[in-house]
């Protein structure tokens, strides 16, 4: 924790910078909803990458995980890899021919 006024000032400055970055990234996420990328899956992928980056900033700075032991980084790396795998599964499921997409009858 910060003991001197200089350390407190640096900590407050870092929180303001990270908060501003989160506000800008939130604006980018909202702006992304108005932009049409080549595929809808790309919009989702970019949005999820922005969300993951914002979640990482919140966890590292506001939850003070950047001062933890090395074990927490291994757990976080596994969690991040698992989340990325789930994101890709979600994106790739849109082109899966085995997924039922509606009541279209090809015989008519």
Description:
The protein is an all-alpha fold and 108 residues long. It has one domain. It has three helices and no strands. It has helices spanning 5-32, 40-62, 70-92. It is flat and about 60 Å long. 0% of the residues are buried. The model has no long low-confidence stretch (mean pLDDT 82). The chain crosses the membrane at residues 15-35, 41-63, 75-94. Keywords: Cell membrane, Membrane, Transmembrane, Transmembrane helix. It is found in: Cell membrane.
Structure, briefly:
The chain has one domain. The longest helix is centred in the N-terminal third of the chain and has 28 residues, at 5-32. It has helices spanning 5-32, 40-62, 70-92.
Give the tags.
108 residues; 3 helices; mainly alpha
Layout of helices and strands:
Layout: H1 5-32, H2 40-62, H3 70-92
Helix pairs in contact: 1-2, 2-3
State which percent range the strand residues make up. under 5%
> What's the average pLDDT?
82
Termini, distance in Å?
70 Å
- The number of helical segments is 3
**Percent helix range:** 55-70%
- Rounded Rg: 20 Å
The tally of structural domains comes to 1
Structural class of the helix and strand makeup? Answer: mainly alpha
Q: How would you describe the shape?
A: flat
Biggest beta-sheet profile:
none
Instruction: Please write the string of helix (H) and strand (E) elements.
Output: HHH
Poorly predicted regions: none
Number of strands: 0
């Amino acid at each position: 924790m910060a003991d001197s006024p200089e350390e407190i000032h640096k900590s407050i400055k870092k929180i303001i910078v990270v908060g501003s970055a989160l506000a800008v990234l939130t604006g980018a996420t909202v702006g992304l909803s108005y932009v049409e990328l080549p595929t809808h899956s790309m919009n989702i992928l970019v949005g999820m990458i922005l969300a993951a980056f914002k979640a990482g900033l919140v966890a590292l700075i506001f939850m003070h995980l950047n001062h933890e032991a090395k074990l927490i980084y291994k757990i976080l790396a596994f969690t991040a890899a698992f989340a990325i795998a789930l994101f890709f599964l979600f994106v790739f499921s849109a082109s899966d021919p085995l997924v039922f997409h509606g009541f279209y009858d090809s015989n008519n």
